[in-house]
Amino acid sequence: MKKIIHSRIKPFWQSDKAMLYHADSMGLLPKFESETIDMIFADPPYFLSDDGISCSGGKQVSVNKAEWDKALPVKDKHAFNRRWIRMCKRVLQPNGTIWISGTLHNIYSVGLALEQEGFRILNNITWQKSNPPPNLACRCFTHSTETVLWACKVNAKHLFNYSLMKEYNGGKQMKDVWSGSLTPRGEKSFGKHPTQKPEYLLERIILASTKEDALILDPFTGSSTTGAVALKQGRRFIGIDNEAEYLEISKQRLIEAGGLC
Questions:
Q1: Contacts for 257 with CB less than 8 Å, ≥ 6 apart
Q2: Residue 169 sits in a domain of what CATH number?
């Protein structure tokens, strides 16, 4: 794969179609060549680890995931979102697009940051989970959706594979509410990530907005659902994460998806 990062920076793992980097995206993204990425999918920290409780496997568990997800003051959270989105804009092709997932804990900041950094929001996708965990506190409705924002640079002519999406949807124009289950156990065979997305979600995103051999970036790659789907669909991939544990899972998933060592 063509080098788009300074050659002295060694990847955690690489093949002819994929690269993984053990790094903080804030430090690595400035070292990318500008306008080299066709599409970005980002699942940034939601900042919801506030010592509350949640439900997993029918049991009460702590909502805390890790230090990287620790709740922040609104001002700091928004500054973080503006910074990484600004860095992503620089490396994105002029007509490329960015997809960002989130919940009520961060998505409103993300939407504002996109507009402040020169993006135009194309769609507000609602991912409706068919099997969400119950709300144990019983003080509000069950949290059963996440939002995925799709955006392009202002005045850009973005790619949208409309006909394919219509075919994908049984011949009808696809709506912006997508329903499906949480990540199945079979997609966690190499290990678990606390915010892992199901492959069907990334498959739709990638097929909707890229062509074959496109270069896709995930700056918070986790266990690399984005990369696994990208390789299966004939695309190339770069993933960045600061947790080596998750990159080991990513490596195995990418090898299984066709990214040979």
A1: 227, 228, 229, 231, 232
A2: 3.40.50.150
Identify the DSSP state of 220: T
Q: In 3D, which of 141, 78, 75 has the Cα closest to residue 111?
A: 78
Q: Does any domain span residue 261?
A: no
Q: Determine the 3-state secondary structure of 21 from DSSP.
A: strand
105-139 pLDDT, tens digit each:
999 999 999 999 999 999 999 999 999 988 888 89
> Strands across the sheet with 145-153, in order?
13-14, 18-22, 236-241, 215-218, 37-42, 92-102, 145-153, 119-129, 177-180
- Per-residue pLDDT tens over the stretch 186-241: 999 999 898 999 999 999 999 999 999 999 999 999 999 999 999 999 999 999 99
